[in-house]
Structures are given as structure tokens and as C-alpha cells.
Request: fold
Amino acid sequence: MKKSIIIGNWKMNVFPGDGMKIVRKIAKKINKNKKISNLDIVYCPSFLGLADMSKLLNSRLFKNYFLGAQNCFWQDKGNFTGEVSPAWLAKTGCKYVILGHSERMRELRETGEMIQEKIKAVVKNKMTPVVCVGETLDDFAKGINNYVVLDWLIKVLSGVKITSAEEIIIAYEPSWAIGTGRAIRPSHAEYMSKIIKQAMIDIFPLKIVQNNIRIIYGGSVNSKNISSFVAKDLIDGVLIGRASLDPKEFIKMCELII
Ligand code: PEP
Reply:
């Protein structure tokens, strides 16, 4: 079984200074749990909070905590006004980068080609891309969710190569479950994880799929429903938006996973 992972995506909801307080509160409680080493805990604050958070997470108190970014650019350096370099994210201490989140596709019109370039840049800089994929409610109603998910994964992962020292995380996030308080049925998440696993087997060598790819679920996860998702064999963890903002709720969720 792969190690479980919980990723808190704070989006644009936590002012950088306040984020440090949240993480300290969580660590104070969570570090007392002996099974904590069974879990990777990732925080994705705003870009403005990364440097301070990195210093905090580097202290011995935060052994199982990792830093993630919510996005990056596909070039390391150059005349790209307003963009953020993946090389600098790595230097700042980021281990994970969320890519292709449905909010960015919707609000900023990011395309599959852009996401593919970003994935390659993140892997090149020795970080782990957290690649989001999922159908809309309309796709689901039309019954084309499998096709949409497969088509997207093939598009964004084509030409991406990873070695046994690297990792990719695929986050199955149906956009109709994100931020709505309406999580999907865990059996549907499990079914879609099977579809994703098959796509991974078609794209990458089997050994890489077995050892270096984790599939997680995201979409209105909270302390009430988390257990039913992570109980599924094919679901290696969760990506959490709203419920990651409340330290008590986040502590509960971590304890329910480990
Ligand atoms: C997300 O934005 O990736 C997400 C899963 O959000 P929420 O948990 O709020 O649905």
C-alpha cells in the first residue's frame, strides 16, 4: 500500500501571516500521534506565504509536513511578467505543485498544452506535480466522464517521463463537487480511480505506476466523509479546499486517515 497523503489547498483564502498560525496549531496536536509517519501532510499557501512557511516547515517540529504551490509557470526564468518560476519554487522548498485545477481552467482559460508544459517543468525541477483531472456536471449527465478524464490525462501527460526517483500525483476532482459541499459517492470516486489507473498503465511503465504514482480524490471532503474515500484501495489520499482552512477540522481529518 502507498503512503497516504493529505493536501490542503488554501487557494486565495488565507493571508500569509495567518497561515503560519494555522499550521503551528495543527502540528502541536498532530505531532503527538504516533502514527503520524504514515501520512504526508502538504500545505499549499499563497505564493506570498511560501518563503516563511518553508522556514517554519524546515524546523524539526514538522517532520511529515511538505510545502506545495498552487500553480507555476513552465519556464524557469525570463521575460514573463507576473509568472512564478518552478526553479524558484523548488529553491524555496516546495515539493509539490498543483496543476490544472478546474478553477484555473475556468477563470483563466488554461489549456491542456499549458498544463503539459508545466508538468514537465515541475518534474525537471525535481518536484511532484499534483495533476488535477475531472468531469463537469454536464459531462457526468451525458455519461462521458470516462472519456473526458482519459482524453485529458493523455493530453497533459503525453511526453512526460519520470524516473523511479520521481513521483506524479493524479487528483481526481469532478468540478461539480469542488467547493459545493456536495461530495460525490465514494464508489464513483473509486470507479474513476480505476479508469485513471488504467490510463496510467497505458502511459507509463507498470513499475512506475505501481511505485511512483498516487491517485487521490478532491471535492468537498470533510471530517464526516473522509473515511469513506480513503478506505478505498485505489484512493491514496485527498486534496482538500474549504475544510483545510479550519485547524480543528484538518486535525480530525489527518487522524481519520492514519
Ligand atoms: C479543491 O479546490 O481542490 C477542493 C477540493 O476544494 P473543496 O474541498 O472546497 O471542494
The pocket of phosphoenolpyruvate is lined by residues 9, 173, 178-179, 218-221, 239-243 (CB under 6 Å). Residues 95 and 127 are 5 Å apart (CA to CA). The first strand starts at residue 4 and ends at 9. The two ends are 13 Å apart (CA to CA).
